[in-house]
């Protein structure tokens, strides 16, 4: 992989990780269109760039959670502990399924038609959630049931083409969360999900089996961090204005294109 490919795939990861259009699906498509073999280590590395983007963009919520790690009995610390618990609960389904089905999920990344089908599903979820949204519940009202159901949705998003931010955001809206709140909780759930995936691949990265120069890998990480931060700000802006429907049209279009492209090249 060269710097241009790293730039394109890093930017693709940063933009699509947080915009509800499926980063994994777009990376699969990008690898196919660029004629590159799927490199799981590169994919995980650029995910670390997006992790940095979340920590910066969600620094207020992350700060609240960090207060919860203290022994303070203040209202802020209590709120932090509760929010941290809801993030942990929401992470459990994806963690369990990810560990049990890691190899099967990795195999799906080679199946372009599956990616296309899941992109269509993503668009449908966003369409339904946008139409039925209107709740006003805030972060402090998220219940254990909410966290588990949204977490299950995130677990399904381990399949390429099914957007993690799209499924968690849609689930939050359908559970009656206020639009920006649903988006922010979806971003918080991405922190342990991305970090966990990186930890699983850490032995490969440390042994140097990355299939490209380290400088190219780091360049992709920086690009994904910058574009990821911009994507978060953009999504929060669009969610507040009820514009999720645009992403439905986009994922339907890309999904259908991918299915047709896959069938023509079978």
Short note summarizing the structure:
This protein is 79% helix and 0% strand.
Write up this protein.
The chain is mostly helical and 266 residues long. The chain has one domain (3-264). The protein is 79% helix and 0% strand. It has 12 helices and no strands. It has helices at 3-18, 23-34, 40-57, 59-68, 75-100, 102-108, 112-132, 144-156, 164-174, 179-206, 214-240, 245-264. The radius of gyration is 18 Å and the shape is globular. It starts with a helix and ends with a helix. 47% of the residues are buried. The model has no long low-confidence stretch (mean pLDDT 87).
Gap between N and C termini: 25 Å
Taking the sheet with the most strands, its summary is: none
- Beta-strand percentage range: under 5%
Instruction: Please estimate the helix content.
Output: over 70%
Uncertain runs with pLDDT below 50, 5 residues or more?
Answer: none
H/E topology pattern: HHHHHHHHHHHH
Tell me how many strands there are.
0
State mean pLDDT (0 to 100 scale).
87
SS field, number of helical segments: 12
Molecular shape: globular
Q: What is the domain total for the residues? A: 1
Taking Cα atoms only, what radius of gyration do you get, to the nearest Å? 18 Å
Structural class: mainly alpha
């Amino acid at each position: 992989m060269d710097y241009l490919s790293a730039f394109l795939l890093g930017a693709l990861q940063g933009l699509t990780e947080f915009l509800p259009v499926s980063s994994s699906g777009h990376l699969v498509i990008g690898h196919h269109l660029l004629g590159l073999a799927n490199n799981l280590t590169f994919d995980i590395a650029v995910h670390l760039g997006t992790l940095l983007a979340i920590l910066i963009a969600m620094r207020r919520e992350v700060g609240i959670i960090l207060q919860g790690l203290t022994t303070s009995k203040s209202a802020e610390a209590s709120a932090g502990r509760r929010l941290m618990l809801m993030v942990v609960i929401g992470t459990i389904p994806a963690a369990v399924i990810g560990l049990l089905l890691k190899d099967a999920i990795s195999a799906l990344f080679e199946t372009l038609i599956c990616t296309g089908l899941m992109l269509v599903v993503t668009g449908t979820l966003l369409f339904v959630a946008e139409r039925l949204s209107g709740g006003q519940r805030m972060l402090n009202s998220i219940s254990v049931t909410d966290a588990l159901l949204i977490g299950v949705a995130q677990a399904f998003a381990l399949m390429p083409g099914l957007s993690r931010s799209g499924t968690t955001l849609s689930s939050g809206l359908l559970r009656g969360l206020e639009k920006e709140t649903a988006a922010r909780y979806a971003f918080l759930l991405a922190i342990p999900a991305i970090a966990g995936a990186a930890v699983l691949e850490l032995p490969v990265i440390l042994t140097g089996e990355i299939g490209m120069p380290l400088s190219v890998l780091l360049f992709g990480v920086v690009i994904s961090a910058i574009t990821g931060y911009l994507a978060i700000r953009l999504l929060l802006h669009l969610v507040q204005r009820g514009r999720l429907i645009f992403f439905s049209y986009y994922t339907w279009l890309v999904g259908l294109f991918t299915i047709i492209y896959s069938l023509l090249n079978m």
